[in-house]
Batch of 2 targets.
Target 1
Amino acid sequence: MDEAGIRFRAELRALIPRLRRFGHSLTGSVDDGDDLVQGALEKALLREGQFQVGSRLDSWMYKIMQNAWIDQKRSAARQRQFITPMSDDIVAVGVDGRRDFDAKISLRQVRDAMMQLHPDERSVLALVSIEGQSYREAAETLGIPIGTVMSRLARARLRLVQAMDDVDPDSEKG
Amino acid sequence: MDKLTDEVINAWLDGEATRQEGERIEAAISASPELGMRVARLSRANRLLGSAFAETMSGPIPQRFEAILRQPRRFAPLESLKAALSGLLTPAPIMAAAASLALGVVLGGALLAGSTMAPGIAPDGDGRMIATAPMAMQLASVASGVSEGPLRVRLSLIDEGGRYCRQFETAGASGLACLDAGEWVIDTLASGASAPDGAYVMANGSADPALVAAIERRGVRQVLDSQEEARAIANGWRAPAN
């Protein structure tokens, strides 16, 4: 194998922990996430010649995984209902100066809350909040305008906060 | 002052706000404990999210991934494919026009002008150009690089959509034919120039841009080597495994 091929594989290998994390945050399961990673790695090697040297390999891989995940969801055609949009006043709910923000909430509950989000919102949140992509990078990965990244992100965080409040015993509102 | 939208507050949390926006938010937070709480809750959700999905960030890389990365390279980079194409199509006398007439394969000027359909190619109901026998038989049976008969195949590949394609040349033209539901569909036909002695040369001696563009457009999953091509010929070009 030539030097470029060896380097390409080394870079892919170094990305694997982050790709697995992305898969986990999209699917809610390490195993299902790993299936996405496996498919993406195979695809990346098939398309090795199409990767533009100098462009971001991580963005390219996230994009492959994201597309595969959306395709899976479409073909599964599950009629799962996602929570309906909330009204704007939700930001005021639960605001209480005496609240303890280190209240006990298990990480499992955070993951559950993430899985309650609409897939479009979950993708944006995973890329920006977990993978640390900039808004521009996330927009390119998802093929949407930056403004859409921002609005989805705002909605997603709001819902996440609310879902976490719902399970957080210290957030009971009196 | 404009209302501080969630978008602006999030942008600030994500380090995407302008300095001016940042100053505005910091001032607003100092003035409003309620806003401070709102920001703190968003920030906390973000922080917990990172921890909630940290499980795969440590520990060894699963064997299934190591195995994929150890696989030998099977797919040619597009750049090297282009180089291969231009190398293959260096000027060379290839075949006599008479031979192609004998087989009824006449491509090139007349066909490209759309005035007359060549005997080796016929349109189907969808306006596609289909190779008819014997051209289709030639496409299905001739190995790349073998110089016999009027049709010469230069390269066999599998495109991104999983279809077999063969890059061919004949007197006066070169093209790309791809197998679709049992038919060899002519994807692209590019004209070449005829030298005075009737021998065929590519215009300017390099790969025709239309051909390279066609291959780029379809995408290359795999360029077949001679063994893979021989297997494909032997099994009648059955659909490649994905």
Target 2
Amino acid sequence: MIIAGRNISKYFPIKSGSLFGKPLMLKAVNEVNIEVNEGEIVGVVGESGSGKTTLGRLLVGLLTPTSGHIFFDIPDDKLKEYDEYLVNGEKEKYQKIEREYSILNKSGNKLKSIRKSMNIVFQDPYSSLDPRYNVIDIIMEPLIASGQLSSDKRYARAMELLDEVGLPRDFAYRYPHELSGGQRQRVAIARGIATFPKFLVLDEPTSALDVSVQAQILSLLLRIREKYNIGMLLITHNIAVISYMADRVNVMYAGKIVESGPKVDIILQPDHPYTKALISAVPGKSVKANRIILKGDTPNLINPPLGCSFHPRCPVAFGICGWTIKEVYEDLKYLIENKYSEILDNKASVNINNENIVIFNANLDKVKKIIEEEMNNIRSLFAIDIVEEKEGHIQITIKKYRVPKMVHHKNKMISCLLFDLNDN
Amino acid sequence: MEQNILLVNDLRVHFFTRRGTYKALNGVELIIKKGEIFGLAGESGCGKTTLGLSIMGLLPRNAAIITGKVLLDNFDLIAPLRDFAQKNINNFNFRRSENIIKKLNDKLVNIRGKKISMVFQDSMTSLNPVLQIGYQIAESFIVHQPNQLLKRKLARVNAKQNQLEEILDMLKNGASEDEVVAFAESNGLSGIEEQVINVWRRNDMSEANKEKIIMSLHSEKLGFFEKIFVFSNKNKAQSLARVPGFSRMYKNTLIKEGYRKAVELLSMLEIPNPDRVVKMYPHELSGGMRQRIMIAIALANNPELVIMDEPTSALDVTVQAQILELIKSLKGRFNTSFIIISHDLSVLAEVCDRIGIMYGGRIVEISSKEDVFKKPLHPYTQMLISAIPTIESQDLRGIGGSVPDMRNPPNGCMFHPRCPYVMDICKTKEPKMLEKDGHLVSCFLYGEDS
Amino acid sequence: MKINMKNQRRIENLKLSLDVFLSNKAAVAGLIIVMLYVIDAIIVQVAPSILGIMHPDELIPNFISPAPLPPSWAHPLGTTYPGIDLLKSILKAIRIDLFYSAFVVIIGAAIGSVIGVISATIGGLMDEIVMRITDIFFSVPYLILALAVGFVMGRNLTNMSLALVIVWWPIYARYTRSQTLSTKESTFVEAAKASGVGRLKIIFKHILPNALPPVFIQVSLDLGSVMVIFSTLAFIGFIVTASVPELGYLTSLGLNYVQSAPWAVIFPGLIITIFALAVNLLGDGLRDVIDPRRRS
């Protein structure tokens, strides 16, 4: 593997409201495992707040993970060993592998050689090029930093790179503001591959470009991958682009990877409810009868929903997905005191104590019937475990939730309790 | 019978800049029918945003409308600008242009926001960050239908409990909206019908609650000054409103009523908790919600035409899907026509009835949403579609060459330098729109003149 | 081949800069006026006798006819009390004022910019401390601070210039700090980091060149402001200049005669105002030239 991430997390401290409060943590990336092989294009797809941009920057060393390790150029068998040692808790053994392959805590020449072997192409071709430097200086920057070639050789290589990305050589002394968006992105790509890196992160490389220009850039990237056998991490929210370019796809939501596998299996046969909604949301060439429209908005990353972070919006969420007693209480309160108040003779009231929900002045059967009817609509009701009459009032207990883990399913990895039915 | 509500005829717009004169629109021909959703697609520089702004008359002072008409219901929206440009084409003075624009703005005050409105791409900058949502929606009502607001209030004052009970019974027995309107009018309660119907149609509360709210719409008490505003006739109210001291109170009365109507409008657009939302500020809402608010403001006064400029480009895919569903649902309910501008053909194919493709300041093809992907006629459309990546794409090709420099656009057909089927005639003659297979296309491959 | 292309582009860019600048008539006027002042200063410094000036560092009074005289052939701008020829003294004073203003602004800008860039780059506690220090300086009105320093150190021209430098640097620190902070976050800096460019090099290569040009513009604008402050302090007598030619001081000399001999007040005062105006126009013109994006 060219790049392998293990249990990567990145938390950003946010100032809390009060003066002496503990700083809150924005959990941008939460325990992510990811791998990219030589010459393979791995797609990371997700919406805003999914953490995909942060993940890209972590893997290329622009950010330091709060926990976890990023391995560079690690042989596959060593990686397998590492995973085994980690599971078995063989501390010395796995720490040895970390010392050798991890890109953290490297300095000096080792760091330099790692920097030479990876680079990143950003989304916005207007701000990723320093407006004060001309094209050839921009392309030569990584070459100068790596200190490999002599000045003449650097210049020659930069000119070759211009050819490689399809720009005429007399663009060499132009400035960024004299180029179009597509041309600037080509310069950014030339800079990215200048030092023959083995790993390239592409953060939304074509999102700011027109469709016809995008097509050219994507073809260019495929050509470069063929020629140099570079491993690429393609980050984008555009499913169409991923479905054309990627070999494998990772779907991210709220800082976690929820589904991962070969492109065809993810795009054409998605299993995770979020992936299904995402794929079906792509505006299509024909009317989609089975489009899934998600309610609600992207999750709060400071206090993400408990259990599975997708559960508040999941159309098939059930009992153990992460509903808290407060969430169920609020939904029940709305149902009993509002929507169905007349059926219950306007007398019922819903209360909550630490462990249970308590309903006064209501008929047990009617309450059960309401719950049954609204279950498919208001999914938090699935978390209700027991509804019973106790001491003149109705008491409702909730099931305990679980956090889903990544498990194998067909030839994908998926993080969803629907597929993780063993009680581990 | 299909009615045309917008007609654009041979519109040509140039921009004067320090770097030269950009010929942004070069003869746009467009007809929009009543109630249709029309998509305008194209890449950067094709002029689609300029077209949208021209229809609204929102051009900057360095823009000159060389020729062309924009007729909304047979009213020429841009006549003053065009006349000015045509007279002064050789010595275009920006300051005088600005004056003409100011005059035009005054003239169009009753049209913009009322008959035709626009939704922009970035909802965060289109909304005023220091005003509550409800206030911003109320503003739209106050400018265009202040009397309707007063009427509503008056209706509530006059309504009696038994009358409301009658209306409720009518609704429970399945009466149509027209019947309710008729009832209200015949009982001197016009203004009550929209309040009742908007509550009745909500699907986020129980019938009991809806009844409760409707039954509360009677015998409202008015403050001293409110009585003056509400009971005096239209002109008196307006002249009173100009008196300093009164104007503040007049505005407050209208704003409060505007907030109420805003809640009804938001619930019609299926925005949850509208009562809370109207008191919130733009930054407290998510991007998708803000865009919904923008659409609500655009629809507030039941316009004939709404122009949306890239309404979903700044949104996530799943939120985009919500907004597109919303737009689709509006079609039946509001009878408004929409022009949706987007660079994303797939988005347009989702919601639009017809799609127009723009290139080089002209519309080169107009087709139905099915045909645009199945049978694209214009070479540019064909190449554009084949540039869209899919899971089956093999060898994705862009379009050779580059977008023309609009300071010096090509002669004849704008696309000819990049067209694989270019013929001699393409280099010299401007192609006109022809009809072919229920399609409109502007290309010599399909003949010369209609 | 590569040298030719590079130079060709450079020349093209220079031409474009010139075009942009020259199209701004006001800026050109500003430039010409500022140049005139500078040339005067140079001549008085190097070869004052060309202008008939024998004592460039002193005002020469004439106690025989001390009353201000109106403009005449002998004294083209008239004289002021006590019998000082206005034209010659103004020419001398321009040199002095220009020198001290430039001193204050350039030193202040240099100190402030360095502190600002370093503070923003290091960040953390150091940044906080520097910001609090600048806050303190800002909360004191500059005139009071200058006066305080003056009382301690002495109220001559040199010490007052130093006082103004102390008052002036915080704004440059703030200015460059905010520029640096925003440039630091920009994508091209991230790209340089990813390409392996070292931290120090990034500062010199990317952050400074993007942070400094606005500073140059601010410097040109501040020259006018500082000269006005200087003249004011001299005018009110706070700066003790004895008989050193200085525009504010010159203006104050004519104050008692403002009704009978208005020229004694108007001419020196006008020279200050014209300079401030010219330098402002020049600064505006420079702004258009320097920002590469505004040129498009």
